[in-house]
Amino acid sequence: MRRCGRGSSRAAMRVDRTSGIRLIAAMEAAKGLVVLVAGLGLLRFVHADLEVIAEDLVRHLHLNPASRYPRIFLELADRLSDVRMWLLALMAFTYASLRLIEAYGLWRKRRWAEWLAVASGAIYVPLEVYELFIGVTRMKVATLTLNLVIVAYMGWTLWAGHRDAKSGLP
Question: Which positions ≥6 away from 96 have C-beta within 8 Å?
């Protein structure tokens, strides 16, 4: 919070929210880019024999193909068709586009992006709470905590922006 001395105006006492919003924008851009790369990686395996690739990977990692997780992985690879790979890639591109658009809007201080950040963060909270009921881990607690902090911060920026707009502050 900035202060300009005794009798300072509300404009001078206003908290600069730009750095926090830009940090969140950078995080959203990073998530978008990671998912975009994953989607492009999925396209690499269209028309490939995924079962053979999965078996090679399990062998390379010295895993027992008869044990639970490698077996699930191999069965999944056997069931993936080219159409499913395209659909997974399309979903990845859609998600990545949403994250990158949100990041752009936040970076450019667009109000719609702040609303999008609140909504897209809040939508995961019930799922994250449900996951905690299944089993508590540090990662799950950290994920929920970080998400709640981001949603609360973005909600606060919306409220503060509304308050500033009502009082005629820039």
Answer: 32, 33, 35, 36, 39
pTM score of the predicted model:
0.76
Q: Is 32 exposed, middle or buried (0-12, 13-18, 19+ CB in 10 A)?
A: buried
Tell me the angle at which helices 138-166 and 125-134 cross, rounded to the nearest 10 degrees. 160
Q: In the chain, where does DSSP find H-type helix?
A: 10-13, 18-44, 50-60, 68-79, 82-107, 111-122, 125-134, 138-166
Q: In total, how many domains does the chain have?
A: 1
Q: Which of 10-14, 131-135, 159-163 has the highest mean pLDDT?
A: 131-135
What's the mean pLDDT when you consider all of the chain?
87
Asked if the structure places residue 5 within a domain, the reply is no
What is the distance between the alpha carbons of residues 124 and 152, in angstroms, rounded to a whole number? Answer: 13
Distance separating the N- and C-terminal Cα atoms of the chain: 15
Does some domain include residue 2? no
The pLDDT tens digits for 62-110 are 998 888 998 998 888 888 888 888 999 999 999 999 999 999 999 999 9
